[in-house]
Specification:
The complex is a heterodimer of chains A (327) and B (331).
Chain A lengths: L8 H26 L15 H7 L7 E5 L3 H7 L3 H8 L23 E5 L5 H15 L5 E6 L6 H13 L3 E7 L2 E2 L2 E2 H4 L16 E5 L3 H16 L5 E6 L17 H9 L2 H11 L5 H24 L19
Helix pairs in contact in A: 1-2, 1-3, 1-10, 1-11, 2-3, 2-8, 4-11, 5-6
Chain B lengths: L3 E3 H15 L3 E5 L17 H5 L3 E3 L4 H13 L3 E8 L7 H8 L2 H4 L9 E6 L14 H5 L5 E3 L4 H13 L4 E6 L6 E3 L13 E4 L4 E5 L3 H13 L5 E5 L2 E3 L3 H11 L2 E8 L4 H13 L8 E5 L8 H7 L3 H12 L6
Parallel strand pairs in B: 2-3, 2-4, 4-5, 5-7, 6-7, 10-11, 10-13, 13-14
Antiparallel strand pairs in B: 1-8, 6-12, 9-11
The chains are: A alpha/beta (327), B alpha/beta (331).
């Protein structure tokens, strides 16, 4: 990993800005749901901010991602506009999907967010297809398939990694190992120590890295993305991280190891990167505060926009089932 | 094309014509390339030689096959995926039902999934309980996917072209035992619109609504009954979902009697849905209760006498109709 490409200071600041956005967005989601202003299932990505932030600085808007129900961080890092995101979370017609998809199915092709699935593991087979299209057309795009450690135990993982390697598809499988498959610990659901090791059985490069280290995450993603763009095929990246919260909002995570959780929260990657950037002079305290204030204002505006937007008209039930509206 | 052809040849011709006309059409599935003999039944024979990398044989990975088709369609391609046997669609149900059928709606129309999933099935081939099922009702019950089932070569050709053209996902059901049955050759490029049934035989005493291989059985039954002066109308649905309500209702309004026939097991089948709708619309005008014929409620059996007794035949259809029209004739 010492030979990994390193992000320069400006890139690190970009990564940090995305992470801070994800952190604050998560804080707001908790607040808004607990206050009863929006009713939605919410799967917090808090603690996993580094992964998509450090990946997406090497992606273009045209590159594709597929993500899962715990995927707000992936969407935000890829650039889904906040107003559209929040309006969708609130089920309003101004949302990305006219309110018809909701938090588990955010789609926004303009920023490359092609599929968000509520089914564990289902991001991978579809990501292959997007990558296959890029391979056939030669458009140079890459596809990121995000999934969790739980999804590495579903059959779709095996089928997808084998096909991707066989066809040398420009896809990167990003396993965000947050140590919990719903309520079950990684150790209690997975026989191997490292999911990254499984890549060997598909004949593709695989690595297990500290997904909370922005330098390492950036470097590993950059190598995999460059490899995919050069037509050299897929990579499996297991990014080790930690889910700060329970499985979903309302689950306080009693089953999680208290000390382990406290350690992870104490090592909050967002706070760590902020401190480092200031220590290294890449960011002044005033700049950091300005970033935080700007994001907060954008979130105020987005949530207000969402809550003031209309719900979809009832005839939307008949639309988008097929291309032609139902009678 | 000669004046007669088989369903296998008609399907192959449809794929060839579609691929020649539109470079966004791609084909994937187990054994579909010529290195693997162009499909286990030869439906895709010659396509990989002609169109190269646009035709790919896949590993035995049904989720990955349908997933790859979905993803490529989101990026603008029009994939035709082959799931060798209809029973194997069960392995890919998450991709078909949760994703292909729903992405248009759940994305608020931003994305759509113009894929065709070709699959074959049907009792009569001595392949037992996991290689013969008709599962069309499962898919017809799912919002967002169309279900098509041709009965002869011309329908196979025209419906496959329309299915490929269609902007929504289509499950295309091919009957295995009748793949090599001869029929009139299709006119090149002639599409059969989805959602339109065909009156396969006109009649005035009773309407049979059916599809796929059962159309032939129904026509044979109608022919036998005509010798006793009974006039049977046969409606070949061609598209199961969305089905052609207008044609069916007009026919039953005319004859006053309905028998639905399919090879799938009878309970909760397509016939039940059609019977219910016809009952709602035409209750006062029906001359007799609607009847349904379907496969026995069991796994498709292996043993030949049992397999032969599983699905409706011309003889069981004929007997059913005699019992509806003139109970005294049944003895």
């Amino acid at each position: 990993m010492s030979n990994y490409p390193k992000p320069d200071a400006a890139t690190l600041v970009k990564i940090y800005e995305k992470m801070e956005l994800i952190r604050q967005n998560d804080e707001r989601a908790h607040k808004v749901v607990k206050a009863g202003r929006i009713i939605m299932p919410y799967y917090s990505p808090r603690g996993q901010e580094v992964i998509p932030s450090a990946i997406s600085v090497s992606l273009t808007a045209q590159d594709y991602i597929c993500t899962i129900y715990r995927g707000t961080h992936d969407m935000l890092a890829k650039g889904v506009p906040l107003k559209l995101l929040w309006a969708e979370l609130a089920g309003r017609v101004t949302g990305t999907c006219k309110g018809k998809g909701g938090p588990m199915h955010i789609t926004h092709p303009e920023t490359g967010v092609m599929v968000t699935t509520g089914v564990v593991g289902s991001s991978m087979p579809i990501a292959n297809g997007l990558a296959w299209a890029s391979q056939l057309s030669g458009d140079g795009r890459v596809t990121i398939a995000n999934f969790g450690d739980g999804a590495a135990n579903i059959g779709a993982f095996h089928e997808s990694l084998n096909m991707a390697a066989l066809w040398k598809l420009p896809v990167i499988f990003v396993c965000q190992n947050n140590r919990y498959a719903e309520h079950t610990t990684f150790a209690n659901s997975t026989a191997v120590e490292r999911i990254g090791d499984r890549a060997a059985s598909y004949g593709m490069p695989g690595i297990t890295i500290d997904g909370n280290d922005p330098d390492v995450m950036y470097g590993a993603a950059k190598i995999a993305i460059d490899r995919a763009r050069a037509g050299e095929g897929p990579t499996l990246i297991e990014a080790m991280t930690y889910r700060f919260n329970g499985h979903l909002l309302g689950d306080d995570g009693h089953y999680m190891d208290k000390e382990e959780r406290q350690r992870a929260i104490a090592a909050d990657p967002v706070a760590r990167l902020r401190k480092r950037l200031i220590d290294e002079g890449a960011l002044s305290e005033a700049d950091a505060v300005r970033i935080e204030t700007d994001i907060s204002a954008q979130l105020d505006e987005a949530i207000e926009f969402a809550l003031q937007s209309e719900y979809p008209a009832l005839d939307e039930i008949r639309r988008d089932v097929f291309a032609h509206e139902l009678a | 094309m000669t004046s007669k052809t088989t369903i296998v040849q008609a399907l192959n011709q449809a794929l060839d014509d579609a691929m020649a006309a539109d470079p966004s059409i791609i084909v994937l599935g187990e054994d579909v390339a010529d290195r693997e003999e162009g499909g286990v039944m030869g439906v895709t024979k010659g396509l990989s030689t002609k169109y190269g990398d646009r035709v790919r044989s896949t590993p035995i990975s049904e989720q990955a096959i349908v997933g790859a088709a979905i993803g490529a369609s989101l990026a603008g391609y029009k994939p035709v995926a082959e799931i060798m046997l209809m029973n194997f669609t069960t392995v890919a149900m998450d991709m078909i039902v949760n994703h292909a059928a729903k992405l248009r709606f759940m994305s608020g129309g931003q994305t759509h999934v113009p894929i065709v999933i070709r699959t074959m099935t049907g009792a009569g081939f001595s392949v037992g309980g996991q290689h013969s099922d008709y599962l069309e009702a499962w898919f017809a019950h799912t919002a967002g996917i169309k279900v098509v089932a041709p009965a002869d070569p011309a329908e196979a050709y025209g419906l496959l072209l329309s299915s490929i053209d269609d902007p929504d996902p289509v499950l295309f059901i091919e009957n295995m035992p009748s793949y090599w049955t001869q029929g009139a050759a299709p006119e090149q490029g002639k599409r059969i619109p989805l959602g339109q049934a065909r009156i396969a035989r006109e009649g005035s005493d009773l309407t049979i609504v059916t599809y796929s291989r059962m159309v032939g059985e129904a026509l044979a039954a109608a022919e036998a009954l005509s010798k006793d002066g009974l006039s049977i109308e046969v409606v070949d649905l061609r598209t199961i979902a969305p089905w052609d309500r207008d044609t069916v209702l007009q026919s039953v309004a005319k004859t006053g009697r309905l028998l639905t026939v399919h090879e799938a097991t009878k309970p909760f089948g397509v016939g039940s849905e059609i019977a219910a709708e016809v009952n709602e619309e035409l209750f006062g005008r029906l001359k007799s209760p609607i009847r349904r014929l379907g496969g026995a409620f069991c796994a498709v059996p292996f043993s030949k006498p049992l397999e032969d007794a599983f699905a409706p035949t011309a003889r069981t259809i004929e007997a059913e109709i005699r019992s509806i029209l003139s109970p005294e004739l049944t003895h």
